[in-house]
Amino acid sequence: MDALARANDIRSRRAALKSDLKHGKVAIADVLAAPPEYLMTAKVLDVLMAVPKCGKVKSARIMEQCRISPSKTVGGLSGRQRGELLAFFGR
């Protein structure tokens, strides 16, 4: 039951963060520079798709340009990959 409660908490926090990204309350560069603990196991592609004007095709193109696998998680990004994403989003 504890694991289920923890998973629900993580899902609700991720949903709130995606909503904040979509409405411009949080910048994607800030999230990528210092990701919160609950976002470490989320797919980078899913986080990018929450950004305004960044759908599935554009997110996939960004990931390809930065040489990042579509299955990569936020916590699994290398320093180079994180740096390229930050440079792409202007930070």
Please render the helix and strand layout as text:
Blueprint: H1 2-22, H2 28-33, H3 44-49, H4 56-65, H5 79-88
Number of strands: 0
Name of the CATH class: Mainly Alpha
Number of helices: 5
Q: Termini, distance in Å?
A: 41 Å
What summary fits the major beta sheet? none
Do you know the CATH topology?
Helicase, Ruva Protein, domain 3
Query: Number of domains in the coordinates?
Result: 1
Principal-axis shape equals globular
* Helix content estimate: 55-70%
The CATH architecture category equals Orthogonal Bundle
Percent strand equals under 5%
Order of SSEs, N→C? Answer: HHHHH
Query: Spans of 5+ residues with little confidence (pLDDT < 50)?
Result: none
Mean residue pLDDT = 94
Q: Structural class from helices and strands? A: mainly alpha
Q: Which radius of gyration do the C-alpha atoms yield?
A: 13 Å
Describe this structure in a few short sentences:
With 91 residues, this protein is mainly α. It has helices spanning 2-22, 28-33, 44-49, 56-65, 79-88. The longest helix has 21 residues, at 2-22.
Commentary on this structure:
The structure is a single chain. Helix content is 58%, strand content 0%. It has helices at residues 2-22, 28-33, 44-49, 56-65, 79-88. The chain has 91 residues and is mainly α. The protein is built from five helices and no strands. The radius of gyration is 13 Å and the shape is globular. It has one domain (2-88): Helicase, Ruva Protein, domain 3.
